[in-house]
Write a structure and sequence with these properties.
The protein is α/β, with parallel strands linked by helices. Helices cover 62% and strands 8% of the residues. Strands 2-1-3-4-5 form a five-stranded parallel sheet, with helices on both faces. Strand 4, helix 8 and strand 5 form a beta-alpha-beta unit.
Length: 472
């Protein structure tokens, strides 16, 4: 109901009043005055939000303790409670039915993950680009039973999250893509050994140069908790040519298999198993808990989106009807700010953000300013003009393109807010919402033309003269 949305009724009422003044030539406010008023009321908020943030340096991970994993799991349990509360409190009995089994599965997972903290055997993956000798090394290590490690050969396309440690094989210096993967493994808390395989393919001077390069890379990327080790090996050396002199003076040549040379690799693995098993297992379980958190958050995001989209659709048509009825650009901006302010308040409640009316209005005003500054109104209008060319009669109706543009922009503003909040929640980051962040997401959505044709089809019916406007 309008009475429950003071931002909306106040803003639209003011827009209508100013439009009437314009009709009778009592136009006390021009476009620049309105824009200045919006800027004056929200400039301080914009300045505070746009101050540059201190750069965050990438820090190596510290050893993970059991208490940290248990705390993270408790945080996911609280998220599950929130999911259950919102599913029960906001869904009909029919729509609520699928959620209790999912919630029960999530709760069971906590016990399974915490039990995994007691695992005493390390899991190591052998990863590397094709042709680096992963299978040969796996065969050799599996024959070394004293290591007591569970081995698995992996490609870069496979998820290594469940591995406590990794042997990253290379047959030379690292490529940029492999270096980035190495950085990701280190930052996830995994023990990584950089294994230079096929060293027998190089001359001694070249072999030493590559080892030194890899050691520099390891120092740059290594963790203070578990440093990146570098080992040179030959898992499947080239056969050795052997000459034998016979008693008759003849010389016979043959190729003989050379034993694998694993260098200090077995000793390093044994040392890790003896000294780092508990923190490495804890780090692995912590990664699994984070994956579990994202699954739960993804469900909560979907639940909230299902509630949010009807709000967006309701207000987009209110914006479209307002622009269709009052085709004055400066007043469109004021009406859009009022509708977007109400949109932010309504969506904020769904996503747990308790914005005050002033905060919602300030954000809406800044988004409206940024929309004009970035040329997003023109971008929306051009896209709609192309989409409407097949509807020549309707295209000529006065105010139709303004109404559809206002509806489409309102919808995209709502989606940009929803997707920004969802992304921040999935990444586990504190939401630092700014008009700049929303403006960038809005621009991306407009360029994608997502849902444009569907909105045009629905809008031609809803905004035609005599059509009813949904209650807000």
């Amino acid at each position: 109901m309008f009475s429950k949305r003071p931002l909306l009724i106040g803003g639209l009422g003011l827009s209508a009043s100013l439009w009437l003044m314009d009709v009778v030539h009592a136009n006390f406010f021009d476009s620049s005055t309105l824009l200045s008023a919006i800027a004056l009321g929200s400039g301080m908020w914009w300045w505070q939000r746009q101050r540059p943030q201190a750069a965050i340096e990438l820090q190596p991970p510290t050893p993970v303790e059991r208490a940290a994993v248990e705390q993270a799991a408790s945080g996911v349990s609280a998220l599950i409670d929130q999911l259950e509360t919102e599913a029960i409190g906001h869904l009909s009995a029919e729509n609520r039915a699928p959620w209790p089994p999912r919630i029960a599965t999530h709760r069971q997972r906590k016990g399974d993950l915490l039990a995994a903290l007691d695992r005493s055997q390390l899991r190591f993956g052998i990863v590397g680009e094709p042709g680096t000798g992963k299978t040969a090394l796996l065969t050799e290590l599996q024959q070394t039973e004293s290591l007591g490690v569970e081995w698995q050969e992996l490609s870069f396309d496979q998820d290594a999250m469940d591995q406590d440690g990794l042997l990253l094989l290379t047959a030379g210096d690292l490529t940029e893509s492999v270096r980035e993967r190495l950085l990701g493994y280190v930052q996830s808390g995994q023990a990584v050994t950089l294994v230079f395989n096929k060293q027998d393919h190089y001359l001694p001077a070249d072999r030493d140069r590559i080892v030194q390069q890899l050691q520099r890379r390891a120092v740059e990327l290594g963790s203070t908790a578990v440093p990146v080790e570098v080992v040179a090996i030959a898992a499947a050396p080239n056969p050795t040519r052997v000459r034998r002199h016979g008693s008759d003076g003849q010389i016979a040549e043959s190729l003989e298999t050379t034993p694998a040379d694993l260098g200090t690799l077995p000793d390093q693995i044994q040392r890790l198993a003896a000294q780092q098993t508990q923190p490495l297992v804890a780090a692995t379980v912590l990664r699994q808990v984070e994956s579990w958190r994202k699954e739960v958050q993804g469900g909560l995001n979907q639940l909230r989106r299902d509630r949010a989209m009807p709000v967006v659709e309701q207000l987009q048509w209110a914006a479209g009807a307002s622009a269709f009825a009052i085709p004055v650009a400066s007043l469109d901006l004021l009406a859009a700010a009022a509708i977007n302010g109400q949109l932010f308040m309504d969506l904020g409640k769904i996503y747990g953000l308790r914005w005050s009316a002033d905060e919602a209005k300030s954000l809406a005003a800044n988004v409206a300013q940024l929309t004009v500054k970035l040329g997003l109104v023109e971008l929306s209008t051009q896209a709609l003009a192309i989409a409407l060319k097949g509807h020549l009669a309707t295209y000529a109706v006065g105010g139709m393109i303004q109404g559809l543009s206002a509806a489409y922009l309102t919808r995209m503003v709502g989606l940009s807010l929803i997707e920004t909040l969802e992304t921040a929640a999935l990444e586990g980051k504190e939401n630092n919402l700014t008009a700049g962040v929303l403006g960038q997401r809005l621009r991306e959505l407009l360029l994608s033309k997502r849902g444009l044709q569907g909105l045009v089809t629905a809008g031609l019916e809803r905004l035609r003269p005599g059509a009813s406007v949904p209650a807000t």
